[in-house]
Every structure is written in structure tokens, then in C-alpha cells.
Write a structure and sequence with these properties.
Elements: E1 2-4, E2 10-11, H1 15-21, H2 47-62, E3 67-69, E4 79-82, E5 91-102, E6 106-111, E7 121-126, E8 129-134, E9 140-145, H3 147-160, H4 171-190
Antiparallel strand pairs: 1-9, 2-5, 3-4, 4-5, 5-8, 6-7, 8-9
The structure holds nickel (II) ion.
């Protein structure tokens, strides 16, 4: 499923250290305009970025979700964390991720998003992608992804580009969804 070239993209922390350092971040909810900002590339992978990654990972696992882009926590830098494993022990960190090749073959998958809670719908995307990114040491690595991992990577890179998965749906669905979410928000505010 995942072909590696050189560097491990998995990251593990001793759990006691991890717990001291972590902080839960607030996830923005669609239709928040800040979800449509385009994130800037990370210039230097330093301790500030490594702390951001730890906090994002903790927030993703707590939610729980399989992926989180920095855009979703209102940090507009190109950082993604993901864990598509069943036992939730394979954290992947992608800094400045880029898709450098896509398959012609497309695949439809039912997607959801921590920024659009309770909404799931089918999105068609390339079935396989080749990705280049930086790891936590600032080193470049490449790998190929298919299945859920390919979906997740494309979904998260969309976030960095200011795009939420529901924007792949028909305009009619998007209009209905926005109206419903705004109505729910007004009801919450009234309570
Ligand atoms: Ni998402």
C-alpha cells in the first residue's frame, strides 16, 4: 500500500513525554471563511513546527479523525498529520506535501471531515498518487499511495489549498448543506 523511498515517515513518541507536551486545538467548522485561506509553505522545519505537529496529532487522535491539516486549526502553513492505520500507531507527518503524479484511474470514496461533522458524501479522485514532502527533520521523501491513504492525502492537501471536500459536491448539495449548517448554528446560538 505504501512504497517508501529512504526515509521513514512514521513518528513515535514515548507516551509519557508526549502527554506532557500536548495541547488540544480548536477545529474550524465549515462554512468558516478561514477554511478557504491558502496555506504558505513551511520555510524551516524547526521546534515550532515540531510542536505544531505534536499538537495537531493529539487533536486528530482526540477527535478522532484519520487526518488533519493545519488550515483546520487556523494555522495557514503547509503541515498535515494523518493516521489511516487500524491500531492508530502509524502517525504520518507531511510538511509542504505535493502530489507529483496521479493515476488516470479514478476512484469514488465516501469522505467525511472533522471540519464538517456528521456529513459524509462520495467524492471521485485519482485512485493512486505519488507524493513528495518533508519529514520532521526537514528531509525530502517520496512515496506512492492508494486506497484510503491516497484519498486522505488528496483531501488534506485540498485543505492546505483552501478547499473543503464538500466543494467537490454539486452546487445544489453545497447550497442545501450551507443552509442547513447555518440554521443549526442559529439554533445553537439561541440556546
Ligand atoms: Ni477534512
Amino acid at each position: 500500500m505504501l512504497e517508501m523511498s529512504g526515509h521513514s515517515i512514521k513518528m513515535q513518541y514515548p507516551s509519557s513525554t508526549f502527554q506532557h507536551l500536548m495541547a488540544l486545538l480548536t477545529i474550524l467548522h465549515y462554512p468558516d471563511k478561514r477554511l478557504h485561506k491558502v496555506a504558505k509553505p513551511v520555510a524551516v522545519v524547526d521546534d515550532r513546527i515540531r510542536k505544531l505537529v505534536r499538537d495537531m496529532a493529539e487533536t486528530m487522535y482526540d477527535a478522532p479523525g484519520v487526518g488533519l491539516a493545519a488550515t483546520q486549526i487556523d494555522v495557514h502553513e503547509r503541515v498535515v498529520v494523518m493516521d489511516v492505520s487500524e491500531d492508530k500507531k502509524d502517525l504520518m507527518v507531511l510538511i509542504n506535501p505535493e502530489i507529483i503524479a496521479r493515476s488516470d484511474e479514478q476512484k469514488t470514496y465516501e469522505e467525511g471531515c472533522l471540519s464538517v461533522p456528521g456529513v459524509y458524501d462520495e467524492v471521485e479522485r485519482p485512485a493512486e498518487v505519488r507524493v513528495r514532502a518533508l519529514n520532521l527533520e526537514g528531509e525530502s521523501f517520496e512515496f506512492e499511495a492508494d486506497e484510503l491513504l491516497a484519498v486522505c492525502i488528496q483531501h488534506e492537501i485540498d485543505h492546505l489549498n483552501g478547499k473543503v471536500f464538500v466543494q467537490h459536491l454539486s452546487m445544489l448539495k453545497q447550497t442545501r448543506l450551507k443552509a442547513r449548517l447555518r440554521k443549526e448554528q442559529r439554533e445553537l446560538e439561541r440556546v
